[in-house]
Description:
The chain has 658 residues and is mainly β.
Amino acid sequence: xxxxxxxxxxxxxxxxxxxxxxxxxxxxxxxxxxxxxxxxxxxxxxxxxxxxxxxxxxxxxxxxxxxxxxxxxxxxxxxxxxxxxxxxxxxxxxxxxxxxxxxxxxxxxxxxxxxxxxxxxxxxxxxxxxxxxxxxxxxxxxxxxxxxxxxxxxxxxxxxxxxxxxxxxxxxxxxxxxxxxxxxxxxxxxxxxxxxxxxxxxxxxxxxxxxxxxxxxxxxxxxxxxxxxxxxxxxxxxxxxxxxxxxxxxxxxxxxxxxxxxxxxxxxxxxxxxxxxxxxxxxxxxxxxxxxxxxxxxxxxxxxxxxxxxxxxxxxxxxxxxxxxxxxxxxxxxxxxxxxxxxxxxxxxxxxxxxxxxxxxxxxxxxxxxxxxxxxxxxxxxxxxxxxxxxxxxxxxxxxxxxxxxxxxxxxxxxxxxxxxxxxxxxxxxxxxxxxxxxxxxxxxxxxxxxxxxxxxxxxxxxxxxxxxxxxxxxxxxxxxxxxxxxxxxxxxxxxxxxxxxxxxxxxxxxxxxxxxxxxxxxxxxxxxxxxxxxxxxxxxxxxxxxxxxxxxxxxxxxxxxxxxxxxxxxxxxxxxxxxxxxxxxxxxxxxxxxxxxxxxxxxxxxxxxxxxxxxxxxxxxxxxxxxxxxxxxxxxxxxxxxxxxxxxxxxxxxxxx
Length: 658
């Protein structure tokens, strides 16, 4: 890539209004409003992108409408330093790449409305909630870098907070190729001055495309959410169900693969104090996760004592109970102090197994014809899994102070202490110095430490694929960031240099020569450095560009993209809008256990064409991978390393507001 080409990638922009009046605007945000957008995720104080003490990327609902994405996880592909692909643990489940780290252990904390989705059995949000429909999203905030000083475990290399809609009345429907069907609604009602109700719902399904392995990647997803505010009292409830059958599961492709996940969430909160200078709130939240999954482990041709394929997988239930007290106070000199206490009780309540082979007398899975069950069944109280039914009790205290020394200089100091009973304890400090020497320039120095506590699958698993290691300790990272941000009326550019010191990373270690069984170990120490660039440019009232570029200076811990970029071009004409986006990824070339995986660099193109034919309704055409590019992404636990990417998907969407 030439210097000129690289420079072009740094240019970006957001959209000017589609129509003349704000009331008619369904999907755009002015450039000035974007620069002043307020975010809370980085500090639990309201800050702009320039003043926030972390590196932040924000997508509001209007910007998401410019992209041909359906799942919230796909937004990572437009965030510097992050990518989202598919892997071997249910191939359609998103897997995170963040700042040169590609490990399957939940190094990005995912939240919905500030409530964590990462749980205690696998650590990743995407196993139990792999599909979050964009239709119900109001905003998505990303921290690029450490966030444990505020959010504890899993806020390791980044944080993703999805804010759902609460002030909208709208309905949308969609149809597309590969059997795509979707519908969504958002409702909001202000009953009186003190009482507000809202609800969101979405249904998405597709049959999926046919892959060379003889399988499809179907999807069935339902999402329901409701909320009630009465003065200082708030109740939230949420239910989500996803099915991702067929395709790839536990390294094997089969039409009989199964995966079904469910989540139920409820929270109650009360604002005891809410004044101009002080706040104090309390919240109790409970989440229940469950999955039923089974993947092809061995084909019948490779089983000398069995005539049927061998499937196995978990039937697990986990829960999280969280009690949180949060307070803030602004002193007369402008200093702002935030603090909080948190108690979390995480439990794996059920650890059954699903398989099509089982010996009732011995209580063991024996892959021989006499023990064939006729289909995949759930085996309760499976002895080797009982050690997984563990409990984690975490007590946390955190605090942060913002010191605005002057209009040009602010300092943030904070720390969080997490004590996981009988397992580990961690102190996560942070510091951020923000200096604005002249009007258009902002300089930041940011330092933070983050950790991730091992989960039950890593500590206590005992199956045909993984054997746990109860001696594991937390993995942690020390991150230093230098940031320069430049803002003008029609242009901004943001550059970040980061330096990660990675310690005691938990890695999958083969236990057999054929890589069919694994354990876990704290065995990786490494450093990772890189630069992240993003920029926005409005060329005129009708045309705009946005782009990101990421370059790592060190070889990633696991083979992943060392360079990648994205671009969004937007053109508006009267009631029409055309947006074209692209995600570019560098090549990956690695020796696998059986062969060499090599995927040349590739570009995935998407597009959105929207026609706003009335003040409250619009028709859109969305396309992902327009050119139907055939590509694979690397996963270390697949024999040949290759997981097929998603081909061309096209859909028509109609939305009406009322």
